[in-house]
Structures are given as structure tokens and as C-alpha cells.
Amino acid sequence: MTGQHIQAEKVIVCEKLTKRFGDFTATDEISFEVYKGEIFGFLGANGAGKTTAMRMLCGLSAPTSGKASIAGYDVYTQTEDIKRNIGYMSQKFSLYENLTVLENIEFFGGIYGLPDEQIETKTNELLDRLGMKSESKKLVASLPLGWKQKLSFSVAVLHEPKIVFLDEPTGGVDPVTRRQFWNLIYEAADRGITVFVTTHYMDEAEYCNRISIMVDGRMEVLDSPANLKSRFGVKTMDEVFYQLARGAKRGD
Length: 252
Known about the structure:
This protein is of the alpha/beta class. The protein has helices at residues 50-57, 79-84, 101-111, 116-130, 145-156, 175-190, 202-205, 225-232, 237-245, and strands at residues 10-21, 24-35, 39-44, 65-70, 73-74, 86-90, 163-167, 194-198, 210-215, 218-223. The protein starts with 9 loop residues before the first strand and ends in a 7-residue tail after the last helix.
């Protein structure tokens, strides 16, 4: 497990963060902290409030109430600063399919404000690390799904953001490719990048330093995978999730 070097620096701080849509409460007073270099899993069934919470943390949606700071910036008043200090990748990818691999890297390097020399250096490093130098002139649309995902993640951290948000990043790929993708996550965490990841694969929860599980807009549990399995008296995160879904007590 990587990330055991986690420092005490807090890069995400939430206090009673709430989002309502009319009478519906999507996130209900969630409070938590995430640390520099931590791999933080954000789990929950569809409709549990994960996407709503992530949109607030990325500065894309204003909270109804509560407080939150991302990389030291306020989610109400400093959303542009937040966007400059984070990376983002979703299952639907952020890449342009009608551009080549090289064009995508150069385009996003420019979007992130990197100087040309730095873009060139980072492009060569990235292609080398992914073993994609021979594919650099190919359209992204022609790449296998697993390669798209690895490239998309690498582009999301091209500017060395303080935090990268990953929304169901490994959906639809085989277990071997998923493991390779997680190796990239470990490398990013080792460089001090905080990884905030949503996933519905319970085996991936085991790779995180800590995980939270959302149920009906509330954060029901937050702890390391080992501690959660011990608390619920089970051997897998699947069983933890199943007990929570059935409304089992937290065992506090």
C-alpha cells in the first residue's frame, strides 16, 4: 500500500456540507478531511450523493450550506482557484477523440497554463512512462479503452495538481488493466498528489488509505478498509457495503 507517508497537511476540509434541490437533500451535512498524498475512496450506491458532493468539491456547484476548502480555497468564493489546483477525470473521459494522443497532451498542457518547454518535456516523459511513443500520432478514438483511461489520468495530473478527482475511472475495463491504472494512482500519491476516487468496485476500495461510504446523502462510515472490516466483523469490503445497505448499525 502506498501513501503511508501521508503528511498532516489537510487539502480537503468539509464541515456539514449540504446540498438541497428543493425539498430533496442530496448531501446531508457531510464532514470529513483528506490529507496530502492520501488515496481517499468515496463510495456509495447510485443516488447516494457522491456526484453531487464531488461537483461541490470541484467548484462546479455551490453548496446550500456548510463549509469546505479545497487546496486551501473556499468553495463559495474561490472556485477558479480551486479549478487551477485540481485535476479531474470521469468514466466518460476528458480526452478529445478526434485529436491524436500528442495533440491531446499538448492541448491540455496549454489549458493548464504550462509553458511550451515544460509541455514538451512532460509529453515525452508521459509517452515514455505509458509506453505510447509509437501511438503518439494516432487518434484517441482508435485506442483501446484501457489505454484511453491511462492516458486520461496522466493528462489530468500533467500540471501536478494538489488533488485529482476520479469519478468511476475504471468502469468497463478488465481486472488487469484496472490494476495497471491503480499503479498510476500509487505513483501520483507518492508524488504528493491527493487522489479522491469514486468507485463501485469493492476490491478497489481495498487499495485506498481510507474510504467513506455514503448512504442516502449521509456519510455513514469513514475509516481504513482494515478497520471497517474489523468493525463489522467481515472479511471483505463487499460485506461491509452489504451490511450498510441493509441498514446495519455502524458498530460504534
